[in-house]
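Quick start: read one record
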Amino acid sequence: MTESRRQWAGVRGAAALDSVAGQPAPALRKTKHEGYAQGVRAPARLMADALLKDTPPTAKVIDPGGGHPAVAEAGGGGTAPRHLARALQIATVLQTSLELEKVIELFSREVAETIPHSSIAYRNSARQLQLTLGEPAACQVSYRLVVAGQPVGQLGLSRERAFTEAETQELEYLLCSLVYPLLNALKYREAVDSALTDALTGLANRKVFETALEREVKLARRHGTPLSLIVVDIDDFKTINDRFGHSQGDAVLRTVARALADCVRDTDVLARFGGEEFVLLLNNTGREGACRLAERLRSSVAHTVTGGDPEFLEVTVSLGVASLAADDGPHSLFERADQALYRAKAEGKNRFCFQEAGPGGSD
């Protein structure tokens, strides 16, 4: 299988999953922050999205734990015993990794020995996961993967010429070797994500941010690229909690998190720092782009409806912005962004301020 195409992405929101047969949902693309005045929609990847669209209910279900024919027929003659033996060999190979992408890649490599294909695609809508390896082509086969009634995702192969009946029959046997390693990889991923994710908002947590800040400062120094940091704080959040209760306060946190996430690139690090404070680390982004994004974030939150009575809808944020200076380290960069945030609060809230390096530098 060609390795010229490799994509691994989280699917954001239902809109990214909705597609009519043969009509892929458009994918969101963000420009660099220097051109962050607006987000634009990228041209849809027709073949990839068609292969990864929600598999129709009529698609064949592969469930080795639920009496799948590939297991039931293994005791018969013909090619069944050979296919089952091959499936067991592949299962052994797949058990060498708990990384989801690696499991799919290993399965594709093993299957390609007898069933050539140009791409393999995996989607798990419930977990917002999507993976494409290789170059999608016109002829496709897709399956719903299940373990004892528990869905573990949808998988499809594609190539330029049609798959034969013998190939699809063999593939159904071989897919039985994939479902349990795939389930294990999903459980492992969930465990790792839970350690790195804020449970309330679904964003990265403070530990992830602090690790990323150290790394990005080093990279910016090494490559001579700009780096900026935005600290975001919800205005009058204590008042919201006191007046409407903590459950409504939690709803505001989730809503603000979504509004922020909708404005950033996949390469940015957006995290909940603690309480009502969020942080956003912007690689390859200087002052101009960071300030442009800060205003966009402020406006996005201010125009977001959170539900409740009219007063409750008036949720705003203040933001502090700083860019990496020659003598900055992770701590000093964060301190300047935090100082800018305090100044934005003091100047009336619902605004952003930028903090220059050096004594008293600001504007």
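The chain has two domains: 6-194, 198-354.
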